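Much of our argument rests on the idea that a fold can be written as discrete symbols. In the encoding step, the backbone of a single protein was reduced to a row of integers, each denoting a local shape. We regard such an encoding as a compact summary of how the chain folds. The record that follows shows the chain in one-letter code together with its fold in token form:
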Amino acid sequence: MNAGLFVDALATIRLDGVFNPYANHCEIFDLPNAAELRRSNLIGYLQAIEDSGVDTIWMGRDLGYRGGRRTGLALTDESHLSDMKKCYPGSNPKKVTTGSIVAERTAAEIWAVIKLLDCPPLLWNVFPFHPHESNQPLTNRRFTRKELDLVDELNHELISWLGIRRIISIGQDAAKYASNFGVDVETVRHPSYGGVRDFREGIKRLYGGILRSECTNQVALF
């Protein structure tokens, strides 16, 4: 397996009520070649992960309409694309939508920590697409078991290919799924729906000793 083949496999999946950012086109916001550019974003990111030897995943639930639907990158909104270039050498993600940059609260919390780590993890989701309500593309919903079954094999291939040894689950949905991979699993609360304080406490428990102290503006969050 390599990054190109993996992303090509993701791009073949089509589901009703699901936006596949590596194949589908958003008529509201996307540039004409947005799907192609999102594939490139993810390929570059996964290649950077492979080159770095990272063996840890931070795993969320699925892509949201303000974040990964637009960028093609898990737990990453448009306002943090430049940070990804700095934190993951070799990646070069580009904005692929029209109009102003859109920010997402969950991404802000995630990236406040990522920027403090010398060896940041792979950011991924249980379901690597954006599930939405019928005929309401700019909504979020939980994926179904049937939908998850269609990506389960690819998730296993990703973990095997990259030699992942540890998963930090962002929320209980991810925690239940992560237990299937036979690697070490830790869980922190998802920062949405009033979970910010618990999320930060969970990160302090797991990473407090190695957060870069020179980043004073970010450390103040914790």
About this structure: Residues 3-219 form a domain with the Uracil-DNA Glycosylase, subunit E fold (CATH 3.40.470.10).
